[in-house]
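Incident log, structure service

09:12 report received: a user says their structure output differs between two submissions of the same chain.
09:20 pulled the input from the user's history:
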Amino acid sequence: MKKSIIAGTVMLVSASLLSGCVIHVGNAHALEGSDFSSILGNIDIAEGKHAGDISSVNGNVEISNNAGADEVSIVNGNLEMGSDVTVRNIDIVNGDVSATSHLTVLKNVETVNGNVTLPAQSTIGGSVETVNGDIDAIDTTIDKHIKTLNGDITLSGTTHIAGNLIYKQSESSWGKQSDDKPTLTISASVTIEGDIILKRPVHLDIENDALMQKVVVSYSDAQ
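09:34 re-ran on a clean worker, output below:
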């Protein structure tokens, strides 16, 4: 998982750098297509508007219906999106990702300590990855992989994963394996082209026998 967002806490370079206020993209003073950064303030993208790169430290980002942005990077804040939102990439340290419906992410969705909720008719062009956050997807297409260390994963509806589903091992200071088993829940209508790779103990609730055959257990103390 890229951690370039941390550098943004030290240096935020953009068209707007504001502290302790709300940036409304869609107002006359906030030019559409520009980059926006905020410390201790929220950023709102108005309906039908598109921003460039967005960086927020200790503030939430809200993107309204039929709007979008390029890179969205947040430290300590949530990303809330309406319907028919398009963004290029999402990278969050402490915060949740959610949308109403028809979300399009051209690249990846990554969080450290935050849940990812992917609504119906969503498309992710890359991978979805968390460290401690849960992943919930319904009727969603993910073109690469799903990865987590400690999060619960729930896949339902016609969700399709083109790559692997991976429960990772502990890695560096960004994630320590929890003693509690996470739960992987997959409904019968979900399809996964790759394997279900378990590098740590996981509680499985998989309805489709064909998917159970894809489970690969690869930790040393597996029973």
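09:41 both user submissions now match this output. Likely a transient worker issue. Closing.
09:42 reviewer note: The chain has a mean pLDDT of 87. The first strand starts at residue 16 and ends at 19.
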